């Protein structure tokens, strides 16, 4: 690490070397990080990347992970968190499902529908909505199918298996293409989950971690992020 810092100071921060191990939930890595890899590699060709995709709870930096990407609020932790983006959760379904089962007009109508969800132990299994008075409500819709990855839930929703609630960064292309239709938009809680890069502040911050954190901040520094700008455009189209 001392040699890395010495090289970085001499070469103006271009000396990031070694292997950077990044942990992320699979959907964010696949849909948001993967498209950025070519750009990052051109900036830091001597740096090797290793992605570990996992939804398992626990210490996010176990196993030699350098940086972990976390979506949602954080529990008390000794890790350092740098927020670089945020995302809404969208309730949606495929047109084929809605043609067969009808369109829910309010949160209470979800009880009569097949809702695809994460396992009950996952924090994302709770759906946040607003009632007619505008008050925030938390509900756990019933359904006979659950999966522990958003990618599986998305595949089933595309196939018309039911209504699902997924992160906007994950499904923005499906919404744009009409493969999925947003539901209950007027009952959205209005709350966006933060997206953090986590790293261990108790050890020396290596050059390879530093350049990746800076890259994330630059890549997602647009306000709002691309998936939220797309949401505004869809809302204008509906209007």
Task: Give a short summary of the structure.
With 239 residues, this protein is α+β, with helices and mostly antiparallel strands. It is 32% helix and 22% strand.
What does this structure look like?
With 239 residues, the chain is of the alpha+beta class. The protein contains eight helices and ten strands. The strands form three sheets. The chain has a five-stranded mixed sheet. A hairpin with a 5-residue loop joins β6 and β7. The longest helix is centred in the last third of the chain and has 13 residues, at 207-219. The protein is elongated, with a radius of gyration of 20 Å.
Q: Percent of residues in beta strands?
A: 15-25%
pLDDT < 50 stretches: 9-13
Average of per-residue pLDDT values: 86
Number of helices: 8
Computed structural class: alpha+beta
The major sheet is characterized as: 5 strands, mixed
Listing every helix as H and every strand as E from the N terminus to the C terminus, the arrangement reads HEHHEEEEHEEHEHEEHH
Oligomer: single chain
Q: If you compute it from the alpha carbons, what radius of gyration comes out, rounded to the nearest whole angstrom? A: 20 Å
Q: Percent of residues in helical segments?
A: 25-40%
Total DSSP E strands = 10
User: How are the strands ordered across the major sheet?
Assistant: 2-1-3-10-4
Shape: elongated
Query: Between the first and last Cα atoms, what is the distance in angstroms?
Result: 55 Å
């Amino acid at each position: 690490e001392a040699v890395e810092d010495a090289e970085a100071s001499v070469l103006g921060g271009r000396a990031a070397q070694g292997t950077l191990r990044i942990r992320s939930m699979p959907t964010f890595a696949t849909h948001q990080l993967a498209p950025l890899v070519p750009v990052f590699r051109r900036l830091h060709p001597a740096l090797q990347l290793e992605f570990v995709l996992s939804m398992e709870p626990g210490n996010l930096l176990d196993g030699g992970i350098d940086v972990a990407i976390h979506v949602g609020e954080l529990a008390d932790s000794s890790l350092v968190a740098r927020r670089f983006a945020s995302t809404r959760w969208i309730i949606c379904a495929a047109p084929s499902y809605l043609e067969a089962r009808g369109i829910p007009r309010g949160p209470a109508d979800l009880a009569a529908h097949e809702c695809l969800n994460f396992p009950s132990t996952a924090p994302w299994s709770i759906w946040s909505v607003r009632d007619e008075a505008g008050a925030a409500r938390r509900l756990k819709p019933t359904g006979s199918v659950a999966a522990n990855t958003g990618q599986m839930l998305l595949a089933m929703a595309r196939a018309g298996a039911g209504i699902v609630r997924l992160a906007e960064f994950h499904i923005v292309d499906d919404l744009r293409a009409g493969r999925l239709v947003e539901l209950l938009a007027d009952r959205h809680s209005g709350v966006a989950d933060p997206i953090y890069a986590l790293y261990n502040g108790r050890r020396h911050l290596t050059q390879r971690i530093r350049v990746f954190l800076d890259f994330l901040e630059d890549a997602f520094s647009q306000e709002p992020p691309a998936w939220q700008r797309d949401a505004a455009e869809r809302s204008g189209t509906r209007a």
